[in-house]
Design brief:
By secondary structure, the protein is α/β, with parallel strands linked by helices. It is built from 26 helices and 28 strands. It folds into four domains: 50 residues, Phosphorylase Kinase, domain 1 (2-Layer Sandwich); 291 residues, Rossmann fold; 199 residues, Dimethylsulfoxide Reductase, domain 2 (3-Layer(aba) Sandwich); 124 residues, Barwin-like endoglucanases (Beta Barrel), CATH 2.40.40. Strand 10, helix 8 and strand 11 form a beta-alpha-beta unit.
Length: 733
C-alpha cells in the first residue's frame, strides 16, 4: 500500500505493509516516488504506531463538568448546534471564533473545508498557527510580489551556494520549502563543488553538515542582511540596469531601488557586527560570495520569522536574492508551479483591513494574531469571544503565554474541537469530534506543494474503510452547517463550492474553460466523494490540467500512485507578480517605515541571556509525544546552555528560568553547540495535565509559559519566540 506521509512538510512517499487485521507491520520509504526516492525519517516510520495509539479518541465525546462520555455522531452534532445557537442568539456571530492548528495544513479536509467553516461561522475572529510560525513570510511576499503565497524557495537541486538563516532542515525536514531528503540535497550541493553556509545561534545538525556555521545573536538577522545589502551597493556587486529599472540577467523589473539604497546606507557591516556578533569582515565576505557565485539562494525560516523583526528579515532575504540576480532563475530562489493552480490576485495586497477588538492588532491574510486570543476571550464587551472552534490545534502549548490561554478557555460559553486527543487544549471543550486515522483518510498536499523545490503531484486515497466513522471532510462540513444554523446533506456544501467555482471559471477572461457550459463541466468530474470531486476539478483547471491543455486529473493521479514528476522549477515571475506597479517592490513603504523601529533597537540595553526555541527530528510541535518510539534520545525537553554560562551562574543539573511572562524549573543540557548568552528550550512539551499516557509520563515543560503574548512582530502580528530575555538561577531546596 502506498501513501504520502502527512507528519511534516517533506511529503515523502511511504510503502506500508498491513497484516490480516489491517495493522501496520512496516512503513518504508517509497523508492519509486520520483520526489522523495525512498527517503524516510523516524516520524514516517512510526506512522502505524500513531494510528494505533490506544489513547486516540474513536467516538465523539461530550463533557459535563469534569466528566466525559462517549456519544453517537448525531447526538454530538445536536450538542454543537445547540451550543452555537445559544451563543449566536445572545451575543451574535462576532462572539464566534476559529483556531486552526498546524496539522490542518496536512489534510485534504483542512485544505478544502476550513474556508467553508469560516464562512459559515460568519466571524472575523480567525486565528491559526500561521501567526506562531510563518506570517512574516506571507506579509513580506505580499508587499514585494503582490501575493502572500508567492514565496520563493531555494532551487536546491541546481544551486551552487545556499545561505540559510534560522533554518534547521536536518531536524525539520524543511519548512515553507517542501524538499524530501533535504540532507541528501545539501550533500549533493557540496558534492558538485557548491557551498552551504548556516547562520544560527546554535550549531544545529544542519550547521554540522554545512561548509560554514556562523553564530548570530537571536533576533538580529535584519542587521546581518542589511549589512550584506549595504556591501552589495557599496562595492557595486548588484546586477542593476538603472535605465530599464531591472536587475539580473533575467531582467527582473524592480521598483524602489533608490529608497532601498538610502536605507541600506544606515547599516554598515560594522553596525551589523555590533548588533549580531558576526564580524564585519565575514559579512563583507558573504556578500561578495553571494554576488560571485554562479547561482545562489538565500533561505530563512522559523528562527527568523518568530522574532521581533521577522517581516523585515523575510523582506531582506528576497532583496538579497534580487540584487544578486538570483530571483526566478534556475539555481536561485524560484516559485513552484503546483498542479492545483492559484487564483491570481486582482486587488493590491494590504494588511489591517480590520483589527482585533482589545489591542487593535491588524489582520494579515484574514487572520488575527494568536498572541491576542486570550485577550479576546477574557476581556468583557461587545464582540468578546464566547464560543471557540479548534481544529487540530493545541494553542495552550503552541501559542505565546500558553498557560494564560489555558486559564481563559474555561471562561467560554461553548467550545468544540476537531481533534484525535483529549489534550491540554481540547480538555476544555464541551464537545470533541475525532477525525479518522491517517490510513482511513485521503491525502493531497494542497498547501505544501505550492512551496516544493520540484513540481510534483501525488494523491493517496483512503487505505482503510471508515466503517461508521464519518470522514474528516464530512465532520467539518457538518460542523459548518451547525454553525450556520442549517440542517441537511453535507454533500450540498461540496456541490455549492463546485458550482460557484465553475461559474466563475467560465466567465473569467483567459480562463481555460471560458465560455463553456458549467453543467457539461460538472458532468466530466470524477470522484468517490465530494472532496475527490473538488480535487478533480482543481486539477483539471490547474496549469497541467486536462481543461488547460494538459493531461492531469484525479484519474491520472490514481493511475500513478507513486506520484507524478512535473519537472524542475521554471522561471515564472511574470505569472506570479501582481503588484500595482507590475514590478518587484524593493522598498514597500510599510517595511521601510518599520526600519525606524529597528534603528531604535540599537540603543537598547542587551539582555544577559535570551531564550530561543528548538526543533527536534522525532517531533513536530506537540503532535507525536504520545508515541513511545519517538520519545527519548535527543527528543527530550532540556534547556541547552553553554558550559561557560553554567559556570558563570553557578548552576547545577537544573535551573529556574524566569521571563517577564513566567518561570519554569528545567533540566540543563550543557553544550558548546550553543553560543554563550543564549539558552534553548524545545516547544510543544508540557503534558503534565494530559490524558495521553506516554506524553504525560514524559511531560517536560511548556516553553510558552516563558514567552510573552505582548511581544509580536508589528508588521505581521507573529508571536516572538526567539530572543526572549530570561534570567537563570540555581534551584534551591
Amino acid at each position: 500500500m502506498l501513501r504520502t506521509c502527512p507528519l511534516c512538510e517533506a511529503v515523502c512517499g511511504l510503502q506500508i505493509e498491513l497484516d490480516e487485521h489491517d495493522r501496520v507491520v512496516s512503513a518504508r520509504g517509497d523508492r519509486d516516488d520520483p520526489f522523495s526516492k525512498g527517503f524516510i525519517c523516524p516520524k514516517g516510520a512510526s506512522l502505524g504506531k500513531l494510528d494505533e495509539d490506544p489513547d486516540l479518541l474513536r467516538a465523539p465525546m461530550i463533557r459535563t463538568g469534569d466528566t466525559w462520555r462517549e456519544v453517537g455522531w448525531d447526538e454530538a452534532f445536536d450538542a454543537v448546534a445547540a451550543g452555537f445557537g445559544a451563543v449566536v442568539a445572545e451575543h451574535g456571530r462576532s462572539a464566534l471564533a476559529l483556531y486552526a492548528g498546524n496539522p490542518s495544513a496536512h489534510t485534504v479536509a483542512g485544505g478544502l473545508y476550513l474556508p467553508v467553516l469560516l464562512r459559515a461561522l460568519g466571524t472575523r475572529s480567525f486565528f491559526s498557527a500561521s501567526t506562531a510560525d510563518q506570517m512574516p513570510k506571507h506579509v513580506a511576499s505580499g508587499f514585494m510580489f503582490g501575493d502572500p503565497l508567492a514565496i520563493p524557495v531555494p532551487d536546491l537541486d541546481r544551486t551552487d551556494y545556499l545561505f540559510m538563516l534560522g533554518a534547521n532542515p536536518m531536524e525539520s525536514n524543511g519548512s515553507l520549502c517542501t524538499a524530501p531528503d533535504f540532507p541528501g540535497r545539501m550533500k549533493a550541493i557540496r558534492a558538485r563543488g557548491g557551498k552551504v553556509v548556516v547562520v544560527d545561534p546554535r550549531r544545529t545538525r544542519t550547521a554540522d553538515r554545512a561548509d560554514e556555521h556562523i553564530f548570530i545573536r537571536p533576533g538580529t538577522d535584519p542587521f546581518l542582511l542589511f549589512g550584506i545589502v549595504h556591501v552589495l551597493f557599496a562595492d557595486e556587486l548588484t546586477e542593476i540596469d538603472v535605465r530599464s529599472g531591472t536587475c539580473g540577467a533575467t531582467k527582473i523589473p524592480v521598483a524602489g531601488l533608490d529608497e532601498l539604497r538610502a536605507v541600506a546606507t544606515l547599516f554598515s557591516p560594522e553596525i551589523a557586527e555590533a548588533q549580531t556578533g558576526v564580524p564585519a569582515a565575514t559579512i563583507t565576505r558573504i556578500a561578495h560570495e553571494l554576488a560571485a557565485a554562479k547561482t545562489a539562494a538565500v533561505y530563512a525560516r522559523i528562527g527568523t520569522c518568530t522574532a521581533e523583526f521577522g517581516t523585515l528579515a523575510q523582506w531582506l532575504v528576497e532583496v538579497v536574492n534580487v540584487l544578486t540576480g538570483n530571483l526566478d532563475r534556475p539555481g536561485g530562489a524560484m516559485f513552484a508551479t503546483p498542479a492545483v493552480g492559484r487564483i491570481r490576485r486582482s486587488r493590491p495586497y494590504r494588511t489591517g483591513r480590520w483589527t482585533s477588538r482589545v489591542r487593535g492588532l491588524p489582520e494579515a491574510n484574514g487572520e488575527l494574531p494568536v498572541a491576542t486570543l486570550a485577550d479576546e476571550i477574557e476581556t468583557p464587551g461587545e464582540g468578546r469571544i464566547r464560543a471557540l472552534v479548534t481544529v487540530a490545534g493545541n494553542p495552550v502549548l503552541s501559542a505565546p503565554s500558553g498557560d494564560r490561554i489555558g486559564r481563559a478557555l474555561p471562561e467560554l460559553d461553548f467550545m468544540v474541537s476537531v481533534d484525535r486527543y483529549l489534550n491540554e487544549t481540547t480538555r476544555h471543550a464541551n464537545v470533541v469530534l475525532p477525525p479518522p486515522t491517517t490510513l482511513q483518510s485521503p491525502h493531497y498536499d494542497f498547501a505544501l506543494l505550492g512551496f516544493a523545490v520540484r513540481n510534483y503531484a501525488r494523491y493517496s486515497p483512503p487505505a482503510l474503510p471508515l466503517d461508521a466513522q464519518p470522514s474528516e471532510a464530512e465532520i467539518l462540513a457538518r460542523l459548518a452547517m451547525a454553525a450556520a444554523g442549517q440542517a441537511g446533506d453535507p454533500a450540498l456544501a461540496d456541490e455549492l463550492v463546485i458550482g460557484t467555482t465553475l461559474q466563475k471559471a467560465v466567465t473569467v477572461a483567459g480562463s481555460p474553460v471560458e465560455g463553456r457550459d458549467t453543467a457539461e463541466l460538472r458532468a466530466e468530474l470524477r470522484g468517490e466523494t465530494g472532496a475527490e470531486l473538488r480535487l478533480d476539478m482543481m486539477l483539471r483547471l490547474g496549469p497541467y490540467g486536462e481543461w488547460n491543455g494538459g493531461t492531469l486529473n484525479l484519474q491520472a493521479l490514481l493511475d500513478n500512485p507513486h506520484g507524478i514528476d512535473l519537472g524542475p522549477l521554471q522561471p515564472q515571475l511574470d505569472e506570479r507578480l501582481c503588484t500595482e506597479s507590475r514590478r518587484v517592490e524593493l522598498a514597500p513603504p510599510a517595511l521601510v517605515d518599520d526600519v525606524a523601529r529597528l534603528r531604535e533597537y540599537i540603543a537598547r540595553a542587551r539582555p544577559e541571556l535570551v531564550l530561543i526555541g528548538r526543533r527536534q527530528l522525532r517531533s513536530n510541535n506537540s503532535w507525536m509525544h504520545n508515541v513511545a518510539s519517538l520519545v527519548g534520545g535527543s527528543n527530550t525537553c532540556t534547556l541547552q546552555i553553554n558550559p561557560a554560562d553554567v559556570d558563570r551562574l553557578g548552576l547545577g543539573d537544573q535551573a529556574v528560568v524566569k521571563s517577564a511572562a513566567g518561570e519554569l524549573t528545567v533540566p540543563l543540557e550543557p553544550t558548546d553547540a550553543i553560543m554563550p548568552g543564549v539558552v534553548s528550550l524545545p516547544h510543544g512539551w508540557g503534558h503534565a495535565r494530559s490524558t495521553q499516557s506516554v506524553a504525560a509520563a514524559n511531560a517536560g515543560v511548556n516553553a510558552n509559559e516563558l514567552t510573552d503574548d505582548a511581544l509580536i512582530d508589528v508588521l505581521s502580528g507573529n508571536a516572538v519566540f526567539n530572543g526572549v530575555p530570561v534570567t537563570l538561577a540555581p534551584v534551591t531546596a
